[in-house]
User: Fold this.
Amino acid sequence: MKNKNTRRVLTSLLAAGAAGSLLVGCAGGGGAAAEIDLGDGPAVAGTVKAGALDGVPLTFVSWGGSFQKGQMDAIAYPFGEESGANMLEDGPTEYAKVKAQVDSNNVNWDVVDTDVIWAEKQCADENGLLQKINYDIVDSSKIPEGLFGDCYVPAMQYGYVFVYNTEKYDTAPTGWADFFDTKKFPGKRAIAGFEDVGPGIHEGALLADGVAEDELYPLDMDRAYNKIDTIRDDLVFWKTGAESTQMIESGEADMALVWSGRGYEAIKNGANYAPVWNQSLVLFEALTVPKNAKNPDASMAFLNYYLGADQQAKLTEQTSYSPVNVDAKPQVDELGQNFLVTNPEIADQMVVSDTAWWAANYDAELERWMKWLQG
Assistant:
């Protein structure tokens, strides 16, 4: 029997490349397994044994833009320097590509930043596209319950919050009831309008209609759509995060329901808007490892490093999104503090979304949402 405190793992280190196959720790070819020595003792988030992954290629995939740049600069590249792994990046995340790679048993993406609802859905499916997280390699002890699952760990936390034009209204809106009150607060409202569905406007509609937070789930979607229909003529839709930022900066929308990082970016760029955190939604992104990944244990070592307090603090400093490690202490300015969902003054006002409900009902709700968008 192996010593339980020894974290030595076997992984296939065969990777396709321009120069042919790369094998680490073995003399021959053919995808032979090589031993990776991750060190003795239990895993500690934010650490990796120096040189443990020397020459191992790892491709990290995320959503692009400044967020992915922050992930690479704050975490992925330092991980490569410490571990010896050859860190590559690709993107944006596309679930169809994950499926195609897994189905063909030719997986080139080692770690993928995904929506947590998609990750939950894949994990619940015995034929899903994700493999289980190896918590012998990944230390989750500093991650709050509810932010990690059998097939994912959190990438970051963020808010789904509406911001409003401070020059438009004499009295500031204070919650969802005001978002849906176009008489007291006239003007266009921007919400997401792309081919996906999840926590956001439906919860806001129900809260505005008087549903208590502790009775929000399961969502009464008939009631939610009836409420959303009351402001349909005042809605404009954004299809990308960049477009949501532009709608704020241009003043096209007087209120905009956006990812908190996008609201932060617009205000930092000079837009005279402010967030309304009362009953906003706290959400998080997931980090996943596809089935049939070539270097699964190396991927797990990366996840373990990603979850470290220092790494999370640096990620927040570069992206404005909130850390998932309870010991992380990012150094950000006042505006940054006003957008951290880990800030107690903000966290106490927020509603926790039920991602498991969304995962279980995703297919039916996506179909209904797309029909509603098409009018």
Q: What stands out?
A: Residues 6-156+285-319 form a domain with the D-Maltodextrin-Binding Protein; domain 2 fold (CATH 3.40.190.10). The CA atoms of residues 46 and 148 lie 16 Å apart.
